Amino acid sequence: MTIEDVTTSPLPRLAPRRPESHKGDFGRALLIGGSRGMSGAITLSGLATLRGGAGLITLAVPRTIQDIVSGFNPSFMTHALSDNGEQIDRRAAKDVIALAESATVAALGPGLGRSAALMEFVAALYSSIARPMVVDADALVALSSRPDAFSQPGGLRVLTPHPGEFARLAGRTMPDAKKLAAGNDGDRVGAAAELAQRDSTARTIVVLKGHRTVITDGKRAALNSTGNPGMATGGSGDVLTGVITALLCQGLEPFDAARLGVHIHGLAGDLAAEKLGQVSLISSDLIDFLPAAFRSASHP
């Protein structure tokens, strides 16, 4: 299948906000993740979702870290999920599926942790939640063990793997992942598109992260030109998850939300590196520079 290259097409844009707008107009985001020792990941995603413009944000996290997460920022809500003292209990899936009914978009994975029980938890949510969902980090690792769930998502999905996570999802080896990360653009686009095409419902967008990140729905693809090596730091991917979630909340189609989100995320990194340098850049800096990145993208 020939993949249409839309790299040079104009970037999608958010519609101007009407004077009479209220928070409900800009979507309700439900972010699921976190575990003891990894409360920062889901918090970074939540903060990025706020800065990305979503109207209401709820972080569904293990009860054991709810107080920690809620203390990071007063602007988002939290929901305690049953846990085993460390991670979300698989029995919390019913609770999350019910919560998602009132959400506009869900995001799954930041700081989730790994276990056999979480593999079942992720598979249940992935195949049952009808709302659009951004899937990242440990949720991708869990999903790689359940190809049946991957091929039958409950709704529109945006997957954001780095090369290692991509290798697991695609059934490749870790040496393959290293070759892919350093490979030419054509190989990377082809591999990402092939993975998207494994969804028999044609509702999956793959964002293969790295230098010149690939965004594809299996029929068309774009390469991103923003970003820099300073963004190779823990939490950067969690911020991307939040930005894409926020854009979906505001009504962009999944491919457009992924493409604009990757651009904005990389641009925030470029602006941060210009001010702070690449060596000292940390993931929370990306959130600080999101406002400037959105302004720049709105007024090229």
How would you describe what is shown here?
The protein is α/β, with parallel strands linked by helices and 300 residues long. The chain has helices at 39-51, 66-70, 93-100, 116-128, 138-144, 147-150, 163-170, 174-182, 185-197, 236-249, 254-276, 283-288, 290-298; strands spanning 4-5, 28-32, 56-62, 77-81, 105-108, 133-135, 157-159, 204-208, 214-216, 220-223. Strands 1-10-9-8-7-6-5-2-3-4 form a 10-stranded mixed beta sheet, sandwiched between helices. The radius of gyration is 18 Å and the shape is globular. It starts with a strand and ends with a helix.
Quick synopsis:
The chain has 300 residues and is an alpha/beta fold. 44% of the residues lie in helices and 14% in strands. The protein has helices spanning 39-51, 66-70, 93-100, 116-128, 138-144, 147-150, 163-170, 174-182, 185-197, 236-249, 254-276, 283-288, 290-298, and strands spanning 4-5, 28-32, 56-62, 77-81, 105-108, 133-135, 157-159, 204-208, 214-216, 220-223.
Helix-strand blueprint:
Layout: E1 4-5, E2 28-32, H1 39-51, E3 56-62, H2 66-70, E4 77-81, H3 93-100, E5 105-108, H4 116-128, E6 133-135, H5 138-144, H6 147-150, E7 157-159, H7 163-170, H8 174-182, H9 185-197, E8 204-208, E9 214-216, E10 220-223, H10 236-249, H11 254-276, H12 283-288, H13 290-298
Helix pairs in contact: 1-10, 4-5, 5-7, 7-8, 10-11, 11-13
Q: Which structural class do you get from the secondary structure elements?
A: alpha/beta
- Mean pLDDT value: 95
Number of strands: 10
Question: How large is the radius of gyration?
Answer: 18 Å
What is the string of helix and strand elements? Answer: EEHEHEHEHEHHEHHHEEEHHHH
Fraction of residues in H or I helices: 40-55%
Distance between the amino and carboxyl termini: 34 Å
Strand content: 5-15%
Q: How many helical stretches? A: 13
Query: Strand sequence of the main sheet, in spatial order?
Result: 1-10-9-8-7-6-5-2-3-4
- For the report, how would you describe the main beta sheet? 10 strands, mixed
